[in-house]
Amino acid sequence: MNVIDVDDVSKSYGDVRALDGLSLSVERGTTLGVFGTNGAGKTTLFKLLVGLNRPDAGTVTVAGADPADGTTVRERVRYLPEHAGFPPALTGREILRFHARMRSVPADRRERHVERILHTVGLADAADRRVGGYSNGMNRRLGLGTALVGEPAVLILDEPTAGLDPDGIRAFHDVVASLGEKTDVTIVFSSHALGEIQRLCEEAVVVADGRVAAAGPVEDLRRAAADEVTVSLSFDREADAEGAAAALRDHAAALAVDRTDLDATATAEPAAAYDLLTAVGEDYDIDRFEVREPGLEAAFHEAVGTSDDRASETGADTAADDSGGEPA
User: Fold this and answer.
1) What contacts 300, CB < 8 A, 6 or more positions away?
2) First and final CA of the chain: distance in angstroms?
3) What is the distance between the alpha carbons of residues 127 and 166, in angstroms, rounded to a whole number?
């Protein structure tokens, strides 16, 4: 059953068309990653999903209703922007209690509901600390907690880990992964870090020039673009690394070979990776090895034909669009 349906939607800002016949469907319980270059249309799409904008053409349905119906959006859909601020003098528990009252969580369930969310987002031990003393990562998880109040059907996360340190990112990822495993909430996740989408999302959508350039299961998108793999080998002796690199260069299946000190790497077609490992392993003592397939970056290039420079901009919407003035 689809919880999000976007059908042939177009949206323009003056002479600039942000969305141009975009269509996508998301099944209930899916964690969907959305990525694209600057100006691809991601932020405009999110604004349509939460009812902040209306399409010029086409239809948008979220949780069985038009997002322009404010009541439905407040009850079923939650949006977590990149930055969410809270009164620094309040505690995390007090903020969640306030949101629970505002969203009409019954009084006899309210404390249990708040406590459960605190545990879900990993803030139970800091629940009674003032938010002004929270780290950026804790504030971001508190924001996610407020979005979970009232058990929404759809959760939209727009660049939720931007600016966090590695520990904050890891903690946020753990919460999102747990939600995906333990609940049937549908999560739409935008990120400029394609590896982040690859780790957290089951499905992905590549948005380019206001349209869906590619969509499907993350693994299918990645494998469809995986025409090469990288075989990385590490050795205890430099002589072994040098000999292995020479053997790889002589092997018909190796497309390119490089060596640095105790390491040798080769690219090959996926089916030939085992042949390379076998050929080197017969004559040289391999300390460690790794076979890496291309990530979603390869799928992005495949879908929109970008250069490396343009691909590095994926997921970064314009600041002007955040203010409502220009498309993204």
Assistant:
1) 35, 194, 206, 306, 311, 314
2) 29
3) 22
The answer to whether residues 256 and 266 touch, using CB atoms and an 8 Å cutoff, is: yes
CA 102/CA 146 separation, integer angstroms? 11
CA dihedral 142, 147, 151, 157 (to 10 degrees): -110
Q: How many residues does the chain have?
A: 328
Phi-psi region of 114 (alpha: psi -120 to 50; beta: other; left: phi over 0): alpha
Provide the residue type at 327 as one letter.
P
d(CA 193, CA 214): 17
Strand 2-13 relative to strand 16-27: parallel, antiparallel, unpaired? antiparallel
Taking phi over 0 as left and psi of -120 to 50 as alpha, with beta for the rest, 87 belongs to beta
Q: Nearest to residue 38, comparing CAs of 297, 325, 246, 318?
A: 318
Contact 300, 226 (CB under 8 A): no
Q: How far is CA 188 from the centre of its chain?
A: 8
> What does each of the 328 residues of the chain score in pLDDT, given as a tens digit?
889 999 999 999 999 899 999 999 999 999 999 988 777 788 889 989 988 889 999 999 998 889 888 776 777 888 887 677 899 999 999 999 999 999 889 999 999 999 999 999 999 999 999 999 999 999 999 999 999 999 889 999 988 888 888 888 889 999 998 888 878 899 998 887 777 888 888 898 888 888 888 888 887 777 766 667 888 999 998 999 999 999 999 998 888 899 989 999 898 877 788 788 888 888 898 998 888 776 666 666 666 665 444 444 443 333 333 334 444 4
